[in-house]
Amino acid sequence: MNPASPAKAHPAQALAPNLRTLDFGVLAQCIHCGLCLPTCPTYDATKLERNSPRDRIALMKQIAEGRSDVTKTFADEMYFCLGCLACQTACPAGVNYAEMFESARADVEHQRILENPKRNAIRFVMLRTIFMNPRLLRALGWGIWIYQASGMQSAVRTLGLTRLLPKNLRELEPLTPGIKAPFSDQRIRTIEPSHEPRRYRVGLLTGCVQDLAYPDINRDTADVLQANGCEVITPRFQSCCGSLHAHNGELGLARELARRAIDSFELDALDAIITNAGGCGGHLKNYAHLLHDDPTYATRAVEWTRKMKDIHEWLAEIGIRPPASSGTIQRVTYHESCHLSHGQKIVTAPRKVLQAIPGLQLIELPEASWCCGSAGIYNITQPEMSRQLLDRKMGHIKGTGVSIVATANPGCLVQLEAGARSHGVELRLVHPVSLLAEAYRGQASN
Ligand code: SF4
Ligand code: SF4
After folding, report:
1. Tell me: the pLDDT tens digits for 290-336?
2. Ligand 2 mutation target, pool 31, 56, 61, 101, most atoms within 8 A of CB
3. Which residue has the least CA distance to atom 6 on ligand 2?
4. Burial, 440: exposed, middle or buried (Cβ in 10 Å; 0-12, 13-18, 19+)?
5. Which of 24, 29, 37, 82 is deepest in the core (most CB within 10 A)?
């Protein structure tokens, strides 16, 4: 049965169709040991048990067993949780917090418990309209690019005109990512050959926010793949992967986007499908589970999940061709995207990519895997907590004394760029793969 369609469900299940149809083994794994508590940013901030993973799981279990309903308090708690999955890494019992978290938020939306006209309008525009329509998203990207490239954004900021915006928009304005037209389709051809004798043929995901704000990273990813023996296939007008929808209680829309993503690649002809966005990768690897009861897509979703690789993971697997030394010394620190490190357990591969670059000195960042406060749209929905986490992260970055910070997720890049501006720090925020691509280019020009 599709857990998102309550039509045939028992009345008790209809109140929380996702939690109440979740495999009970998932909910029963927690042994209440509390080892996850010190790793949870919300518990760390408040020291309240109700803001901890242990209490959130206990509430979810009560609802799943029909001993409690989805209340406003529960809904607020599930949206105070970052979904950073640090608790999942710390848990000795192997709790699958990601699945519980998605089910819980889907039930909150199913019960329409947090609804109000403003929230509904934002969700309709963002989740149901813009991020479901890649052409519309691209058109919006061009609009913002014109606003920024024409100097209007700088003028508005310099003249303090952002004060005229409503409070919510005023708080969001500094988080507007810089848009870098042209986008990926104009930078990467549909088929790009390997620079070496071809060893692999791979598909490249260009993303949604990544495509507008960091299409240069997509170009760098294609370059690095080509330099490492891969032919690169990049379908046009790719849709959002649906992670934003899955993490915000819209599992039906997430399934629709997963089907679209699968349809856009010829899976049988590819050795791997590559993503360079840590925040998307965990969700992309979950398509087999997301579509497990879809009669048309279940088998292809399993194949998709088997072939889905984060770029660092793929490079570590096939072996990185080291660039020749350029003689340039760079001191770089690395911030881990939550869904790359906690969600996908990819911790050493990005460091290997960085360490493959001659002259690069990797300075370890204290609390490298502690959330920066971006967490999807958390910096919009919970600005105060997000700001606290960003300030903590910026304190650690400043402590390293470096001016280059590598991180592998567009959400983290946008958040840390905003942090650098607000802290008045000159920082270069960069994807590890871009540094590797630069090293290959430097070698070619020597
Ligand atoms: S996902 Fe992050 S914020 Fe949520 S309970 Fe786990 S550690 Fe805490
Ligand atoms: S989620 Fe894991 S670490 Fe946290 S209390 Fe439960 S069993 Fe212990």
Report:
1. 999 999 999 999 999 999 999 999 999 999 999 987 778 899 999 99
2. 31
3. 30
4. buried
5. 82
Note whether residue 220 is domain-resident: no
CB-side exposure of 314: number of CA atoms within 13 Å? 28
Question: Nearest 10 degrees: CA dihedral of 147, 149, 155, 157?
Answer: 80
pLDDT interval class at 7 (50, 70, 90): very low
**Domain assignment present for 440:** yes
Q: For position 393, which CATH number holds?
A: 3.40.50.1860
Q: Given 82, 111, 140, which residue is the final one in a domain?
A: 111
Greater confidence, 118 or 436?
436
- Sheet with 191-192: strands ordered across: 191-192, 230-233, 200-204, 272-275, 308-310
Q: Answer yes or no: is 349 within a domain.
A: yes
Mutate which of 43, 56, 77, 82 for ligand 1 pocket (most atoms within 8 A of beta carbon): 82
Range of the domain at 54: 13-111
Domain-located, residue 185: no
- pLDDT band for position 4 (50/70/90)? very low
Ligand 2 centroid to Cα of residue 38, in Å, is: 11
- Of 46, 79, 111, which marks where a domain is finished? 111
Distance (angstroms) between ligand 1 centre and the Cα of 121 equals 27
Count of domains for the chain: 2
**Ligand 1 mean position, distance from CA 84 (Å):** 5
